[in-house]
Each structure stands twice: as structure tokens, then as C-alpha cells.
Design brief:
alpha+beta; 2 domains; globular; 11 helices; 5-stranded antiparallel beta sheet
């Protein structure tokens, strides 16, 4: 306790208390900025630091990074953030870079990371594009839309968490996991009744930004399947001239004090905490 954090103008973090201090340069910023940005630094050898504070766009301010509220802060390094090894058993920092960049992430002989291209760009989903750029043709580049819905959800899940899950990922009682959309989508009756047709791309065109605060758009997606003749909506839904389907059937969950995500386990919810539908 009693630690002070100072953000220097040249992006260096100074963590100090009464009798000691340490200074760490900020090397990477993770996140698009839509929700927020978390900072990462290499501190020594194959050890990397996820900084204890993040920037949150909604609040336009800094606060503790997700998952850091319960972490100890007995030393300067613990107060500065959470350390991760470069590679090995998950979680490791190489996997973080792989999802937040494009192309292979290579570990060089001295333990340095070589990142092909920062940010998530076209080739993150479509694969190497050199052949396609030289001679565009079917099969010269990966087209995720050609995948089955299940395969596509797993493909998106390579970063957004696969429906196959892993340790802790499919704990549907943990609000933090709501941000893992593919596992939740595949729990939905909508997915299971779609005959393998419902995928991430059914509602989210890959080359468009999310239509935040546009309930009519997403309700239109629901209505394309739920018509009066086919899988009709409930009477209470039909009675609403302008229903906001997602507010009821994909409620927002507070995964962190500054982060809210839609629960992609589509269903009928009866009240907070909106983690597992009643049906």
C-alpha cells in the first residue's frame, strides 16, 4: 500500500513509495481504444509486465487494469502490474501479441520478440496475401466465409476464445468470461436450432465496425430468422412495435467496473446477473 504512479511525458511509468521507486518504459499499447488500452513492457529476459493501470475510453480516465484488483501489491514490481513469461504454459505474453498483431510472432535467439505487423489487419483473418495481390483468384487467399458456422466460430475463437474452451474459459458463472463470445453463442438455442448456419458473421460483417447503440440493426438480424411463420417471436415481443431484441435476449453484463459486454448466450433472462438464461 502507499504506492504512487506517475506517467511521464515520454511514456515511462514511475512507481514509488516512501523508501524506494522504480521506472519502467511503456513499450506497447494493447487494444483498439473502443473499450480501453492496456500497456505492456519487457522488464527482463523473458519476463513481461502487463501494467497495473489501463486507459478506459468510456470514463476518459485511467484505472486498474482488468483482473488486477485482486492482485497483491507487496513490492514495487507487484504494484507495477502482473508479470508473464514469454512463452510456455498459458497464459503467456507471446499469445497476447499473436492476437493483437498480424502475422507470425517470432522469438529470436536472445529472447526478443519479432512482431510481423502491429495491429489486427487484413492478413490476420485472410492469411498471407502476396499471391492474391499478384494474381487474384479463388483459393489464392483464405476466405473465412467459406467455412461452416462451427468452424468459423472456432476460427474467430482463436482470439476471442474457442467454443472448445480451456481452463476456466467455459465457466459461465464468471462475468469476466462473457467477453468470450464464441463459447456463449454455441450454447444458444438459436445456434443449435440453426442447422449449423448461425455464425459470428451472421450478425457482424467482417469489414464493418460494430454498430454500437443501433438496436434496430441487430433486431433486424433477429427478425430475419424469427418471422411470424418461422420460429415466431413470443407474443410479448410481437406486441412491441420497435423491439430491442438484444436488450432482453443478449443482456449487457458488467465484466469489469469499466467494461460491459453483450452476453452471446442468446436466451430468455429473468434478471441479474444475466449470466445463464432461464431457457
Amino acid at each position: 500500500m502507499g504506492f504512487r504512479f506517475i506517467l511521464q511525458r515520454d511514456f515511462r511509468i514511475r512507481v514509488a513509495k516512501a523508501d524506494a521507486e522504480m521506472e519502467i518504459p511503456v513499450e506497447w499499447a494493447f487494444g483498439s481504444g473502443t473499450h480501453g488500452v492496456t500497456f505492456v513492457s519487457r522488464i527482463a529476459g523473458d519476463s513481461y509486465l502487463e501494467h497495473a493501470f489501463s486507459y478506459y475510453a468510456g470514463a476518459d480516465s485511467f484505472d486498474l487494469s482488468p483482473g488486477h484488483r485482486a492482485l497483491p501489491s507487496r513490492t514495487l514490481l507487484e504494484a507495477a502490474g502482473q508479470t508473464f513469461r514469454l512463452q510456455g504454459p498459458a497464459p503467456n505474453i507471446r499469445a497476447c501479441f499473436q492476437c493483437h498483431s498480424t502475422g507470425p510472432v517470432t522469438v529470436l535467439a536472445k529472447g526478443d520478440l519479432e512482431i510481423n505487423e502491429t495491429g489486427v489487419r487484413c492478413e490476420a483473418c485472410h492469411g498471407p496475401g502476396q499471391l492474391h495481390a499478384a494474381k487474384p483468384a479463388k483459393g489464392s487467399i483464405r476466405n473465412p466465409r467459406s467455412m461452416t458456422a462451427g468452424d468459423l466460430n472456432r476460427f474467430c475463437g482463436s482470439c476471442h476464445r474457442s467454443p472448445d474452451g480451456g481452463p476456466g474459459v467455459n465457466d459461465f458463472t464468471n462475468p469476466w468470461n462473457v467477453r468470450h463470445q464464441p463459447p456463449y453463442l454455441e450454447q444458444s438455442r438459436c445456434f443449435r436450432s440453426s442447422g449449423g448456419a448461425l455464425s459470428c458473421l451472421s450478425c457482424h460483417p467482417a469489414h464493418e465496425l460494430l454498430r454500437r447503440n443501433d438496436p434496430d440493426y441487430y433486431s433486424g438480424k433477429c427478425k430475419s430468422c424469427h418471422t411470424g411463420d418461422r420460429r415466431p417471436p413470443a407474443k410479448v415481443c410481437l406486441a412491441d412495435a420497435s423491439p430491442d431484441c438484444t436488450s432482453c435476449h443478449m443482456p449487457s453484463v458488467a465484466a469489469d467496473p469499466h467494461l460491459n459486454f453483450r452476453n452471446h448466450w442468446i436466451g430468455v433472462y429473468t434478471g441479474s446477473p444475466n449470466l445463464i438464461p432461464a431457457r
